[in-house]
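Researcher: Here's a chain I'd like modeled. Treat it as a single chain, no partners, no ligands.
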Amino acid sequence: MNRDLTQGNPQGVLWRFCLPLFGSVLFQQMYNIADSLVAGKFIGENALAAVGNSYEITLIYLAFAFGCNMGCSVVVSRLFGAKEYPRMRTAVSTACILSAAVCAALMLFGLFGAGPLLRLIQTPAELFADSKRYLDIYTLGLPFLFFYNIATGIFSALGDSKTPFLFLAVSSVANIIVDILFVTAFGRGVEGVAWATFLCQGVSCLLAMGAVFRRLSALGDGTKVPRFDRAILGQIVAIAVPSTLQQGFISLGNIVIQGIINGFGAPVVAGYAAAVKLNNLVITSFTTLGNGISNYTAQNLGAGRQERIGAGFRAGVQMVWTLGLPFFLLYFFGGEMCLRLFLDAPTALAVHTGVTYLRILAPFYFVVSVKLVADGILRGAGQMRRFMTATFTDLILRVVLAFVLSGTALGATGIWCAWPIGWTTGTLLSIAFYRKGPWHRAKTTTAE
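Model: Modeled as a single isolated chain. Structure tokens:
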């Protein structure tokens, strides 16, 4: 069901809209968590390390898919808020054309460049073959990844966060079952884990895109609209490129960090691979909630109601802190229990690595979550230069400090210490940029 985010109490509106988004990202992360869990439990520690090693490269693909998602979502949100439905339908088809072109280019890169990239990050010899096989199959499924992200972006722009949640809930549970089936019954190893994700994500994509086109046809009046519009493409690209660069540079930074971690050996790689999946579950959840706030911001600006933005920021912070508290408690006090879900008979070093990583990062979830709320508003308002400045400052600090601190007596622990420093600095910048926004000159609305 489409939902107008420009009416009603901002706190209630955001909770109703963002909770299904939160549920969706939990199920989305189950894809990657299931891959690591099945690899670690049913194949072995090296298989877990191979999937984790490949994961950092797949984040490059996700960065481009995320950029297309956000570009489409923000532009469609503005047009929906302004009730310009014909141009909104043109924006959707324009976004699909853009996504298809970007996806084709990435598939060529992935099929021919995965091997050299794995060598560049110094993938241990015992992990190389499985990492390469996993990446090759993942690359073949990129069209499903891209168009599913376009579909979820459109649903979010229309104020509907429940439909993608239902698709993901079913497909993620199916992914776990198919993962186990391919690995245990068919004996396909890491390759089976990759094919399971390919199949389940493909079904989810086709169902989601079918639902999108039905929803859009219901908003039309039967008249034909242009399939492509250069001006709308420019608006999409203006949001998509900075969003892609944000996620892309984060992914490249993580690959550099992965290369540093690989120098500490397979047990450290395995412990990090398990812990980073748990951490990314939280960060991706906060990011998705921030995306919801971008939709809220874009709809309200499209409707000329910028006085609602400040109340949306406060409601967003309350929301991410409420949802982040259980993760902090679980990871800080129960990190070892969580890690053992991924590791079968793990080495002491692997467990120590993962537990240390989680205990250093978990308290700072309350910091980085505020950054992602402020970033959501900046992105929804189209203030991409400020958004990028805060993001790149955070990333550069993390990469440089990971390199520097890993060479000290702290060793691998020094790498984990880089995260809180980067997060805190980026958060201070994002808050400062948010406070300079034009919505602070508007009268704040807390209820209607």
